[in-house]
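Input record (one chain):
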Amino acid sequence: MTTFRAKFTLNLAILLLACSWLACQPTGSLEQDGGSPDSGPPAAVRVSVDRITYVNSTGDVFTIKADGSDRRQLTGGAQVSSGPTGPFLAQGIDFNSFYAWPTWSPDGARLAVSRVRTSGGQDAEVTIQLLDPVTVRSRTVYDSDFPGLVADGSPHYLYWSPDSKNLSFLAATPNGLALFVTDTGTGKPHIGVARGAPLYYSWSGDGNSLAVHIGEEIKLFRELSDQISGEVLATARGFRVPAFSPDGQWLAYVDQTESGGALFIVQVDDPDHPTRLTSVGAFSAFMWSPTGEELAVADQLTANPMAFERLRVVSASSGQERTVTEEPLLAFYWSPDGRRIAWVGLEREQQTFEWKVSSIVPGIVPGIVPGAIGESRSLFSFYPSREVFTMLSYFDQYAYSHSPWSPDSSHLVVAGTERMPFERRNGHTPTGARVFVLDAESGTPPQDISEGTLAFWSWN
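The corresponding structure, as predicted from the sequence alone:
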């Protein structure tokens, strides 16, 4: 992600926070600085699962159920609320502070979130906080010494290891974009993994290794330690994020051949003998299915800077291809069970974005010939919020850290508006982004559950 050397100021923070604070209706409690999200009720009570986290227009973080009930405010607000541990008192609204990009740990026990705080006209204090979604306690795990952005509206990029132990993050530093890993349980110093731009990466399934794409180099960091060093597996281009198979044994990447771009997979323990799967266009994005049997691949057949032009599913064992759709699309996401793919198409005539979904018959289903792909169904035409547009633009990175899918693969969550917002038109009141839940099974109308600019589902 490109590093923007932008600095937050007090006036900007007040503007962002004050736009619609009067419309906010908090019902939960505020963080308690200095507390620890690791000290609280027993794990059986603490873990919050099958919930949505979202950020409202004032920059506060909430969690909520899919039907819009049981809303809990984790930051900001001022009221007494009750929870599993009894009543607790929140603090007042802080106009000098806002939060961005809440990120569920895979076990659902914690949220990592960026916080921007300004005071006295000084440069902003940009930190990473860990929040306990039940006790609402928080603690700081990283304090930036450089108030820059890693992408539009993103102070950091946050990505938990699959075992929920380590938090990796991208941060702007005086020396450029840097990738760090911190052990959230021990409080040990952060490990600096890599530095440079562009920089994209993914965790192995066991949470012990990282595959990092810096410039044109793909590096494998097999172990994370203070003396960390990466092993160059390949020099590749035409894509962003290298992808580990779910079992961590294979790595997928794109490289150029004499006949053009191609998708390769290579065994992590035998990196010198890659297998070519299929040809791809000038730029592509890809992700393994949750079963590890196939990869979904989107690519551009022409030099189209705005969108991919087709979406395919490719067998990892045979290279057999199935076309899911041939249309302009911005992003795609496997459902957790691997039996659906949702994507965001671009409707050029109406100039809108549209969520669509198709069922996918895995190649491993006995008695069923691989190739069966259900007809696509339109779920929702919308305009994404600025933050959601950033997520969709870098979806192949954010898909590993921020899930739009419900854990049972039946619903999706998205923030945006159903029609063109009037935010920049004189004489109109801003409509404001809303959080919608989409039914991927029955096709019932989208459910508007809250005001919000960014929303993600817990992983379990």
